[in-house]
Known about the structure:
heterodimer; A: alpha/beta; B: mainly alpha; 0% strand
Amino acid sequence: MSNGNGKKIDEGRRTTLKLLALAALLSTVDFAVFDKSEFKKMLRKVGLDEILGVADARQGLGDFERRALEKEKMLKSLCDQAAEQLCSEKGETSSECLLARKKCSKLVVKSTPAREGKRFAMALDVDKCIGCRRCEYACVMENNTVRDAGMDWIRIYEVDREAVEQLEGARDDYLVAPKPGKVYVPVACMHCEDPPCTMVCPVVATWKEKDGIVVIDYDKCIGCKYCVVACPYGARRFNLFKPRLNPLDLNPNMHILGNVPRPVHVVEKCTWCIQRTRDGGVPACVEACPVGARVFGDLKDPESPIRKVIEEYGVFVLKPEAGTNPRFFYFFGGARTPPKSEGDEK
Amino acid sequence: MSKGIGEKVLEAVDSLIYIFRVGLKGSKAYKLLLAGLGIMAVYGIYLWIFVQHAPIFLGSDNGGLYMTGVNEDVPWGLYISFFTFWVGVAASAVIFSFAGYVFGDKEFKRIVPLAEAQAVVALIITVWGIVANLGHPERGLIYMPRFENLRSMLDWDFTVIFTYMGLNAIAFVYTIHKYRRGEEVPWKFLVIFMIVSTPFAIGIHTVTAWIFHALTARPALNTALLAPRFIATAFASGPALLLIIVYLAEKYTDWFKVDLKLYRTTLNVIVVALATGLFFTLAEIHEAFWYTTEPLKRSQLLATFLGGPSLLLTFMIWLWIGLGTAAALLGMAPPMRKSKKKIVYIALLTFIAVFSEKTLSTILPGFIINPIHVPAEYHITPIEVFVGIGIHATVFILYAILIKSYLITLRAKGVNV
Lengths: 346, 417
């Protein structure tokens, strides 16, 4: 800007800008000073959570109840639609239709909180387990896991009897079981006393409840998979697929922190069937085990089966060096389920 | 005449606009380069938004992270490996600002803004790599800035990365802003910048290493050597990339000239860093084959060095050892230090070597044998490659603009800084 004319224009522009800035400042001051009470009457404070419809886990259980009700309403309407379609195809009086309607009417999403003075634990008799994977199957059915994604919360490893603690040479793709000289170690979430997965979560979307169950808030998980990396037992699963279960195939007994259908791209894992155990039941895997290898109970209750097992047999944990203090125990009950003889292996 | 704060802000905004206005202008070849990068960027971002993250961004039923190579045993793949590599490149900007501002080397001072620009763009790749790997980026946007869990290293990394990115961006824009007016950057600003940014430069890489190593679940990564190893090779890859950039800038402009002495000094840094990095790798090999008593660590390291479920990983780790040794030895040979061209070849070799060390070879060893000793497979998928290329292309467009604007500013100023 060497000529005088340009300088003049430049200065004019500057003055205008200055004035504009001053006006903006004044209007802010104006807004801040005057009519505060009037504004307060008219305006209501709205949080980001409220706008986006996502809830904060720290707000407590009232929030979970609300979300559970919303989910229940949504799933019920989906279920009703599916049932309606089925009934129009098969007829109102067909058994499928009646079953579907009954299922939809029973559908519930709970938000049962943890009860005080309880600490759940599970134990598994390595001598008894035959590696039949029925607990895996029951878990998939109970927990509304996507059926065709190859994702399961329980993984069963076949190891040499000597290597059971370190799990050296373990494999999970065996086809024949039980084999002599091998033991079968089902591994799922250990619900550790000091879980590393909850420590690393950057947004506190996973935490340990008062009764010892480690849960995940599926509506808060950002899917960074850091917890999957941190778990020394490989127990966490990342949901790579959109939930695509037929609403009529759902297990109607659901919990907001447990087996409610998970959204895509969140982490999920075993919750010891929170929907059953918080109401006094046992997990589905315990119920399904054909040889009774699994024991579940309350550690603080002296009469519980888990206490009997610990007192009678003594238990060990997987990977004690990881420093996680698991509450899933393994023990050798002594009475071995006989393995298949050589001729049976095909 | 003193100016009001409002005018100063307006001037800074003007300088910001100036950077992009100048950076987008150029010869036909330059525009062609930008257009080529632009096509790659658009394709990569398209794949990311409309295919890989379609269930999140569009709510569609198809698409999802299952299209990438990540699976239940290998939760982190190529994207996170970009994160580890580029965070190192960003960290090394501190070498140049130290040489330029603290030691007062005139030649280094001229290329400090380039190093700052490199740090900014490298950190954008870093953050984008994490976001591309994130299941729910939209939730991350809401929840990550709350810093709810300060025991999580990810929160700390988030803090240091964004702080360091901001510091370097401010320093770069401020330098351009001052140079445009033919003024020097005031020493007060430089002192504050150096004091604040140096810990963050080391911090971004250290905290990134801590993300991986503070885990008992992955014994191959659970070694206190990880952070030093990260820093060592970071100080090789960043200067190497910057040397290549400076060489190209010299080649395509006639006013930007840098002394051979700068190349040699930078090469010294590269050689020392490479030697340290190789030494750390040697220490790890020694542990794997001689004395580790932890079975899982042993099998993970053996699978890394001798071949296991992922042969690509084994190839890359040996590529690092081979090329790294070659680059370090060549860098010490006097005939190779005589011309800029030869030094840049060594820099290129270093860049490839450290790229193969810091990407998959850093994170995969912890995953290829899962915690229960079962081999896990990871195969890079085309979508990961193309999204990765898209991320890099987008960021390199920005880098080209920043470099160009700095070079043009130097020419307009007409004096040697």
